Amino acid sequence: MNQSRQWFILALLIATGWVLYLLATVITPFVISAGLAFLGDPLVDRLERVRIYRWQFNRTAAVIVVFVLISLVLTVVLFFLLPLLRDQVEKLIDKAPEVFEWLVHTAMPWLQQHLGLAAFEWDAESLTQALKSYWKEVSTALFGVLGSVSRGGQAVANWLMNLVLVPVVTFYLLRDWDELIEGVRTLVPRNAEPTVSRLCKEIEQVLGAFIRGQLMVMLALGLIYTVGLWALGLDLALIIGMGAGLLSIVPYLGTIVGVIAALVAAFFQFQDVLHPVLVLAVFATGQALEGMVLTPKLVGDQVGLHPVAVIFAVLAGGQLFGFLGVLLALPAASALNVLVGYMHQKYQESDLYLRDSAGPGDT
Questions:
Q1: DSSP symbol at 272
Q2: Please, which residues have CB within 8 angstroms of residue 128's CB and are 6 or more apart in sequence?
Q3: 51 and which of 40, 56, 320, 329 could share a cystine (Cβ 3.0–4.6 Å)?
């Protein structure tokens, strides 16, 4: 009977995965809405405890306030940051062939001369032409894909539907979030409910620490790097700064990539030594603020996800379920992280682990 139940659970998991794969496009806006509701629920709960004279926020009023705040943030991103980012991408595409030529004809010869690499030879002209040709093909393909997507009637219809559907679903999920969680809790068998509730609470803490904390650190670093590079007059400040901030999801990766990209851009644009030194100062300031202020204040002592687990989860989710898999990667990794810890604890408490703990002279 126990074996039959295990096979049933396995079949149910496989069927769930297959349904997710088939309905990925339909489920995606609901997953986005659930993520926004998860992020906004703690603020709604806090507002419910706020009292202004004799009037106190009820659930609906608190949801309206949080919903308006989320809408304002997304509106600013769509109508302010996206046009700036588009301009930066256009500048990058325009300048990339010149940067390639500068690297081949100026930077590499300088490195050869000062690092003793004169014996290394290559056809600089052929390499430059190959890089330019490859970059032209990539940029043409990219804009071709974006153009075809923007012209596709079905794609536009889906985009408009999601634009309306996501806010509506987010509002109702925010309003009924606590009731939905309580409804799920009542479905858990009574003998397993304490353990399941404790594990779910730990999953929420891990996921919350990562999303609300680490993502805020990433955005803050992106703003610090962007403002600092913009103050230096770097043309690609936004795309390099925000890219470095977002890549900081993996420790030191964002800093390394951002420093290299910013140094190359500064050398190419200013042709001096001062601006690269100032670029290093900008990233050093960002790292100092992250270690002393941002991470302690925004993430705190809560244990997040290991960077390797995050990378694997995102890549595996994207491979299996596309964009939906990317959205579900972090919740799945958080749940798996907590469950592995629970199983490890149970294993250490089991007879299998403790069987040989007694010494040879003990009875």
A1: S
A2: 100, 101, 104, 105
A3: 56
> Which helix (H) or strand (E) segment is 360 a member of?
none
Q: Residue 150 — pLDDT band, cuts 50, 70, 90?
A: very low
Residues near 223 by Cβ (< 8 Å), separated by ≥ 6? 241, 245
Nearest to 308 by CA among 250, 257, 255: 250
Q: Of 301, 311, 302, which Cα lies nearest the Cα of 333?
A: 311
- Phi, psi angle pair for 51, to nearest 5°: -125, 130
Structural element, H or E, at residue 55: strand 55-56
* 262-291 core/surface letters (b: 16 or more CB in 10 A; e: else): bbbbbbbbbeeeebbebbeebbeebbeebe
Helices (H) and strands (E) in the chain, counts: 15, 2
For 246-278, the pLDDT digits (tens) are 888 777 788 898 999 899 888 878 888 899 999
Q: Please report, as a single letter, which amino acid is at residue 315.
A: L
Q: Within 13 Å, how many C-alpha atoms sit on residue 93's CB side?
A: 14
Q: What DSSP state is assigned to residue 302?
A: -
Q: Give the integer Cα–Cα distance in Å for 344 and 347.
A: 5
> Model-level pTM greater than 0.70?
no
Tell the burial category of 145 from Cβ atoms under 10 Å away from its Cβ (0-12, 13-18, 19+): exposed
Please state, in angstroms and rounded to a whole number, the distance separating the CA atoms of residues 117 and 163. Answer: 55
Helices (H), 49-152: 59-76, 82-102, 108-115, 124-151
Instruction: Give the residue among 37, 31, 13, 334 at the shortest CA–CA distance from 200.
Output: 334
**Residue 321 CB: number of other CB atoms within 10 A?**
19
Nearest by Cα to 337 from 310, 358, 317: 310
Residue 52: in which H helix or E strand, if any?
A: strand 51-52
> Cα separation of 69 and 89, whole Å?
29
What CA–CA distance (Å, rounded) separates 107 from 89? 23
Six-digit token string for 347: 């294993």
| pLDDT tens digits for range 77-123 | 777 777 777 777 777 777 777 777 777 777 677 666 666 655 445 55
Structure tokens at 200: 């779910």
Enter the DSSP assignment of 6: H
